[in-house]
Amino acid sequence: MTSFVSQQNSSKPSSWGERWVAPQQPPSSMQDGNSCPTEQWPPANQEYCDQQHRPAPQGQNGNPHQSGQGQQYRPAPQGQNGNPHQSGQGQQYRPAPQGQGQQGSSDEAGGNGLYPRFFGIKAHGTKAAIYFTPDTTKSGYQTVAIEAAEMLIPAEKKYNWNQKTRLQLTRSEILDVIAVMLGLSPGCEFGNHKGANNAVKSFTMKHQGKSVFISVSESGRPIKAVPVPVMEAIQIGHMILTVYIQNYPGLSPDVVVPTLARAINGRAAPQQS
Fold this sequence. Notes:
17% helix; 25% strand
C-alpha cells in the first residue's frame, strides 16, 4: 500500500513509493500577489517560478521591435535619405518613425495611418515611370497620390524624380481608378488638378487587356506615359481599395467591389427612353 506523507510535513518524498502532499497554505511571503501564484506552490525551485512569471524583455520603452541592446527593427534602406525613388525597386517599404503620428499630409508628405510613409508601388516604362503611394489630404481624407517622372538616363534606368508631376486622387476620382485597375472599367480621364504657378495637371487610364496604359500630364512639361502590366495594375488597385475603405468604418471590399461593378455596368448600359 502506498504511504503518504503527513500534510504537516513539507519535506519531499524519500522514494518513488511515497507521495508528497503540498501544504494547504503557502508561506506568508507568497501571499502578497508579487510572487509565484498560490496554486503553483510549492515550485520545484524558485528560479523556475521566477522564469515562469517574469515578462519577456520588450526592449526600450516596451517596444517589441527593439532588442535588449536598444536596436530598433528597421528594413534595409530604400535609397539615399529614405527616398523611395532612388532604389529602382518596384515596391518600397519603410516604417514611419516611432512615436510620430501621421497627420493630414501636405502635397509632398505622403503616408497615412494604414501604410508606412514611404510605401508605394512603382512601374517603369521606356520613357517614364509612375509611382502610387498612400496619402492623406489636408482635410484628412485617405487617398492615393500619383507621381510620374520622365526618363533621364536610359542606360542607367534613371528617372527625373526631381521634376516629377504629382497629384492626389480626389473623392470623385478614386473609385473610377480602382475600377480601371481591377478590370471593371475600360478607362477614365480626369483633369483640373491645380499645381504650383497655376499649372494644370491631368491623367488618363485605359485598360488594354494585358496592361493599363497610364498617362500623366502637367502644363509646361512633357507627358509621362507608362504601360502598367495587368498583374501589377491589380496590386495597385488592391492597395487603393484598402486606402479608400479607411474613410468609411465598417465598409469592406466585399461590399465595394460588387456595388462598383454594378455601377460601372449601369453607366455603360444604353439609356432607355
